[in-house]
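Run log, item B.
One chain of 238 residues. Sequence copied directly from the ordering sheet:
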Amino acid sequence: MELFPNFEFESKSSNDKVVVPSENSGDQPIPMTPATTGRLLELATKFRNLDAWDRIRENELIGIRHPETGEIGLVSILGRGCQIFALHFHLPPEGIVFWQRAMRNIPPDIDSVRMLECEFKNKDDALPYDIAVVARHGKVSRKRRGIPGFRSYVGKTMEKRITQLEGEQLCLVFDLFFLYFSKAFPGKHKSFYEWGKNPEDEHKIPVLYLKKGGSPLYLEDWMIETMAIPPIDTGKLD
């Protein structure tokens, strides 16, 4: 059973233009450093080699609870549809609303999307910018879906290359995904999920959270528990 029946998320194609969200037009975000870029490429390659999209459906979400705010971001793995191959991290609180709408078969409000993305493309389809980033840190792969591209989305028209802070965040998302993957497979991945019978029923997903007194820098301090997706203001679904 699918968590979000009759719902299909289609990411728009990436472009090579740097766009700064209007609300941050006065800020000067720090571009990713070479060290963070190299680390992110290593993690992306590890993720690609797992072929996680062959085991995880796009609607089998994985939650990450922020250790300070308690808000939950949502990881989605795209690829089972054989069109887009990517890891998406929907940031809170918009991500919860995005998927709660989907659970109720309500079309998503694309304008409110706030998401980090690592999308994988063949070399012939990848943007020159993404190929150049890979080339600066090693050999350019000709493997199918071997070129990762990193983007940040704010609404349907607000796409930009990720900043240093976002790069660090995406590195942690990858690390926590690998932790989940190691616990979920080769066992019963679906045992982490509890689906309701109807779209309006409560759904539970695996959520990674930091144990009390733990440090987010140590993976052994992160725990996994099946939790209900938090309720939201139903007015946001209109």
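Observations after the first pass:
- Residues 164-184 form the longest helix (21 residues).
- The beta strands are 62-65, 72-78, 85-90, 114-121, 147-154, 158-161, 204-210, 222-228.
Flagged for discussion on Thursday.
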